[in-house]
């Protein structure tokens, strides 16, 4: 046998248990989402079912108020990403291009906040939002997500910005560009891919966040997707699992596709600076 | 012109810095303040009580149980993750048919929020109709369905396994970054010297990967220590507090039982622990940067 | 076009002072090469002329204007960077036309200028490509082209050839020189390659550790270096140095070496008697002495280069290099006798390094 083929077969055999365990929940999700309701609880439990009920999705959309939760998640993820980027881009540019007093301390501060998890501070954050009168207000999530994401976005942008040679901007100044022009005409076009990738990761973080959304948002009209789906499972006597699974399919699959497409950038970002 | 101008860069970092300091700094100070006071269930501060809240925390057996479980949770998840991720990364770093697909699949759990993963598993592990039971019974491995989440010991074990599963992508990513930076010529040189693949792993890969392994350990410890959704969604720390770790216990104290003073005290304790890990992390990162700077000079 | 005057210029990065009061006058139309070892401050000085670094002390005058506080875009200079700094997201045409576009020149004029530059540099076939699709030498030419279209007052070059392979470097060296002879734009050219300096410059500025060691025409520097540093820096293989005590008796002078050998040297003033001095002899100025004369030397290593042979010998206890264009069949260990023309050797004060 060809050596590479043999190697591939061995590798896949070694990976297969993990691959199965990873794909298992996806299978569970799909199979449940399209199952007729009365085939959820059968004994003995089984994978098979009588027919595909695509209608489950539409039914779920209406019954669980999915559209609203979707909108809330979009609102929070988009705005928090925008806020984080608006604040991170200049900071990352400063880190990659200038020397300034306190730079070392600032980098340490970033590393520290990158490690700060909201859960440890969740009570304090809740009390802060009470004091600001922002409980039950999606903007409280926008602010906190942006703040907690910024360390990540600054690191990521900074490591990409540093790969854009500085002498390109210098060449532009000599060619007659002002600082502003060189930023807009030379630097930004080259930095767009990095900013897009960073934005998408920040978006996914907001999209997936659970603890703060669970804490700050009390009324079901303002639930984001993770909380909305959780609320259909927690503390209920009867859980409509086919609806829950239909919801998770809709909430996760698009993000998973985008993420899969972008994961190589994350590996690169890590290698460039976020970890190194 | 650029390098000496200290004002402009400061103006560029300050807005973000202010937001971060406010959103992260205020809660820390507020928690410190609250932890020293008597607090009503509705959050009113009723005056200083010194370290009473801390004393109460330390006298609480549930705190110690949760702490113990936190240690077990963190250590087993991190070690399990590392033990699986390193070989996976080595495989994924090699060239074989379908590597792109394998990478995508292994990274998949990262793309999905822990909440969703936990919800799906909660259903998959359902004692009556869960599809894990269906699978195992179809394979003839058991005759009766198992109530996976009804008993604390079993539930906690299952949660640990899922914890490992969701930590693998991130850890593998770090290792892949590390592996891709290893110098190819040392492998070639060692091959000329007659090293076997195992020799190469022990004497080249492992030592060179050490900084990345260190970072992976510290980062995973931090993330796993702080991870709430899996346990919260699957068992809410139950049954009978049997799967509570510090974060779930803290969340219950704060938002279920209204014991805000105690919750603040635990928050602060955890904050201290986290700070310690973070300092280790920062030290590792800065050392790594100095090393690579030194290499760059040479 | 304009002259460039650098007056007492200093530069510090924080507490680190890297340029210590440099004075250079670059005449209009002149091609001046800054040369010196790595880290001596050449790039820093050039970047100060360009306006990319602040000037910590002194002043720089371009034409008759002090430019210390003038931003780069208003200095009317063009610069060729070591890594070319081509804009990766623009075509070659746009790279070359960018400066004119920024100055809001009409399209036809931009087109004409870019075409003219492309013509000079043989770049017409590549105008639609992106920089990534060019070879190193072509990129280098684009970087030159970007400077050419500008009609700038001064051209600045920072080691523009150091990323090219040896052969291409020689070709481009000649092209740049030819270009300057045609355009006569005042140019300041930084390199650490002394051959580039010798071949291209109208005048060379030798720098060391943030100071100017000597300024002058290439052959002037080669023939009468002002100090040990310049003497050792220019020329390849570099000048041989032999230390000893000076002794003048009548019209004759000698250098007494530690091993007792007496070497003939130019007759400097008797004031130097018994002082320690350094004799400098270029390898090509050593010749085989007639039998029974000259200084005894033992052959160590022989390296033929094709055109010449380089012979390393032991002479007066020092290792000395000699270059011959004849192919002498020397063997290692062979004893030979060498001599030199006294007018062609140099004496330096061992204490200060200055030429005597
Ligand atoms: N931004 C900076 N901050 C601090 N020191 C600097 C900076 N730029 C240059 N230096 C220092 O200034 C000195 C001169 O640097 P410069 O780049 O001018 O050297 P160079 O002569 O161009 O060398 P090379 O031939 O290697 O390019 C060096 O010692 C360098 O370390
Ligand atoms: Mg330089």
Could you outline the blueprint of secondary structure elements for this entry?
The complex is a heterotrimer of chains A (276), B (298) and C (356).
Chain A: H1 3-33, H2 55-63, H3 66-97, H4 103-115, H5 118-131, H6 138-161, H7 166-174, H8 179-208, H9 211-216, H10 225-231, H11 241-274
Helix pairs in contact in A: 1-11, 2-11, 3-6, 3-8, 4-6, 6-8, 6-11, 7-8, 8-11
Chain B: H1 7-35, E1 37-39, E2 45-48, H2 52-58, H3 61-93, H4 99-111, H5 114-124, H6 131-138, H7 152-180, H8 184-192, H9 197-225, H10 229-235, H11 246-255, H12 260-297
Antiparallel strand pairs in B: 1-2
Helix pairs in contact in B: 1-12, 2-12, 3-7, 3-9, 4-7, 5-10, 7-9, 7-10, 9-12, 11-12
Chain C: E1 4-13, E2 16-26, E3 31-35, H1 42-50, E4 57-62, E5 65-66, E6 77-80, H2 92-102, H3 107-121, H4 136-148, E7 154-158, H5 166-183, E8 186-191, H6 194-200, E9 203-208, E10 211-216, H7 218-223, H8 228-233, E11 240-249, E12 252-256, E13 262-265, E14 276-281, E15 286-288, E16 295-304, E17 309-315, E18 318-324, E19 335-340, E20 346-349
Parallel strand pairs in C: 3-8, 3-9, 6-7, 7-8
Antiparallel strand pairs in C: 1-2, 1-4, 4-5, 9-10, 11-12, 11-14, 12-13, 14-20, 15-19, 16-17, 16-19, 17-18
Helix pairs in contact in C: 2-3, 2-4, 3-4
The complex binds adenosine-5'-triphosphate (ATP) and magnesium ion.
What key phrases describe this protein's structure?
heterotrimer; A: 276 residues; mainly alpha; MetI-like fold; 2 domains; 11 helices; 0% strand; globular; B: 298 residues; two-stranded antiparallel ribbon; 12 helices; binds adenosine-5'-triphosphate; binds magnesium ion
């Amino acid at each position: 046998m060809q050596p590479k083929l043999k190697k591939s077969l061995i590798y896949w055999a070694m990976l297969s248990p993990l691959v199965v365990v990873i794909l298992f929940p996806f299978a569970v999700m799909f199979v449940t989402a399209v199952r007729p309701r009365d085939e959820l609880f059968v004994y003995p439990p089984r994978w098979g079912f009588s027919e595909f009920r695509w209608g489950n999705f539409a039914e779920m959309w209406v019954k669980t108020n999915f559209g609203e939760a979707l909108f809330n998640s979009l609102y929070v993820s988009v705005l928090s990403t925008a806020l984080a980027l608006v604040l991170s881009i200049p900071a990352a540019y400063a880190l990659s291009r200038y020397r300034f007093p306190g730079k070392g301390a600032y980098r340490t501060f970033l590393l520290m906040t990158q490690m700060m998890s909201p859960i440890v501070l969740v009570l304090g954050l809740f009390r802060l939002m009470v004091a600001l009168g922002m409980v039950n207000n999606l903007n409280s999530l926008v602010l906190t997500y942006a703040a907690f994401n910024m360390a990540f976005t600054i690191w990521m942008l900074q490591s990409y910005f540093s790969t854009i040679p500085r002498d390109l901007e210098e060449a532009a100044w000599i060619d007659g560009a002002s600082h502003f022009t060189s930023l807009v005409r030379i630097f930004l076009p080259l930095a767009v891919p990095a900013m897009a990738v960073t934005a998408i990761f920040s978006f996914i973080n907001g999209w997936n966040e659970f603890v703060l959304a669970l804490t700050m948002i009390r009324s079901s009209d303002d639930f984001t997707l993770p909380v909305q789906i959780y609320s259909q499972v927690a503390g209920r006597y009867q859980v409509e699992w086919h609806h829950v699974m239909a919801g998770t399919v809709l909430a996760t699959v698009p993000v998973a596709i985008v993420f899969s497409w972008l994961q190589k950038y994350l590996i690169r970002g890590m290698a460039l600076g976020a970890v190194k | 012109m650029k390098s000496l101008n200290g004002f402009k860069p400061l103006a560029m970092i300050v807005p973000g810095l202010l937001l971060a300091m406010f959103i992260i700094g205020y809660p820390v100070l507020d928690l410190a303040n609250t932890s020293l006071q008597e607090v009503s269930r509705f959050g009113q501060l009723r005056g200083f009580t010194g370290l009473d809240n801390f004393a109460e925390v330390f006298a609480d057996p549930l705190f110690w149980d949760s702490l113990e479980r936190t240690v077990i949770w963190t250590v087993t998840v991190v070690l399990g993750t590392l033990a699986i991720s390193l070989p996976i990364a080595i495989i994924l770093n090699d060239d074989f048919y379908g590597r792109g697909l394998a990478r995508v699949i292994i990274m998949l759990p990262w793309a999905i929020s822990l909440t969703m993963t936990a919800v799906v598993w909660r259903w998959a592990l359902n004692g009556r109709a869960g599809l894990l039971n269906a699978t195992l019974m179809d394979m003839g491995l058991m005759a009766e369905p198992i109530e996976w989440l009804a008993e604390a010991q079993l539930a906690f074990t299952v949660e640990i396994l899922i914890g490992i599963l969701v930590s693998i992508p991130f850890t593998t990513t770090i290792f892949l970054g590390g592996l891709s930076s290893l110098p190819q010529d040392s492998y070639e040189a060692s091959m000329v010297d007659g090293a076997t693949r195992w020799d190469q792993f022990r004497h080249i890969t492992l030592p060179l990967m050490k900084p990345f392994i260190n970072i992976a350990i510290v980062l995973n410890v931090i993330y796993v220590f702080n991870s709430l959704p899996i346990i919260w969604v699957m068992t809410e720390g139950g049954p009978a507090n049997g799967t509570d770790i510090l974060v779930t216990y803290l969340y219950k104290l704060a938002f279920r039982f209204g014991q805000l003073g105690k919750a603040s005290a635990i928050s602060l304790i955890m904050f201290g622990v986290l700070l310690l890990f973070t300092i280790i992390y920062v030290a590792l990162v800065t050392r790594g940067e100095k090393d690579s700077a030194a290499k760059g000079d040479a | 076009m304009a002259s460039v005057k650098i007056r007492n210029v200093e530069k510090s990065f924080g507490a680190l002072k890297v340029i210590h009061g440099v004075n250079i006058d670059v005449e209009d139309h002149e091609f001046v090469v800054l040369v010196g070892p790595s880290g001596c401050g050449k790039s820093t000085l050039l970047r100060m002329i360009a306006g990319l670094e602040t000037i910590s002390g002194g002043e720089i005058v371009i034409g008759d204007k002090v430019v210390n506080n003038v931003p780069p875009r208003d200095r009317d200079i063009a610069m060729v960077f070591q890594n070319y700094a081509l804009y990766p997201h623009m075509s070659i045409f746009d790279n070359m036309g960018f400066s004119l576009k920024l100055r809001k020149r009409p399209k036809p004029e931009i087109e004409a200028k870019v075409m003219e530059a492309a013509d000079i540099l043989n770049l017409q076939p590549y105008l639609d490509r992106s920089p990534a699709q060019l070879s190193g030498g072509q990129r280098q030419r684009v970087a030159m082209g970007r400077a050419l279209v500008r009609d700038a007052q001064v051209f600045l070059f920072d080691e523009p050839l150091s990323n090219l392979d040896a052969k291409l470097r020689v070709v481009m060296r000649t092209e740049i020189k030819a270009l300057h002879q045609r355009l006569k734009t005042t140019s300041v050219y930084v390199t650490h390659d002394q051959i580039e300096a010798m071949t291209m410059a109208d005048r060379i500025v030798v720098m060391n550790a943030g100071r100017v060691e000597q300024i002058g025409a290439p052959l002037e520097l080669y023939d009468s270096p002002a100090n040990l540093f310049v003497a050792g820096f220019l020329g390849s293989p570099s000048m041989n140095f032999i230390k000893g005590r000076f002794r003048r008796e009548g019209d004759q002078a000698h250098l007494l070496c530690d091993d007792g050998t007496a070497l003939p040297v130019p007759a400097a003033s008797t004031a130097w008697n018994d002082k320690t001095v350094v004799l400098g002899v270029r390898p090509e100025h050593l010749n085989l002495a007639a039998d029974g004369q000259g200084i005894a030397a033992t052959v160590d290593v022989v390296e033929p280069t094709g055109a010449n042979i380089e012979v390393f010998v032991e002479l007066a206890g020092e290792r000395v290099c000699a270059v011959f264009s004849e192919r002498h069949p020397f063997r290692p260990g062979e004893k030979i006798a060498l001599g030199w023309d006294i007018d062609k050797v140099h004496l330096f004060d061992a204490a200060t390094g200055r030429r005597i």
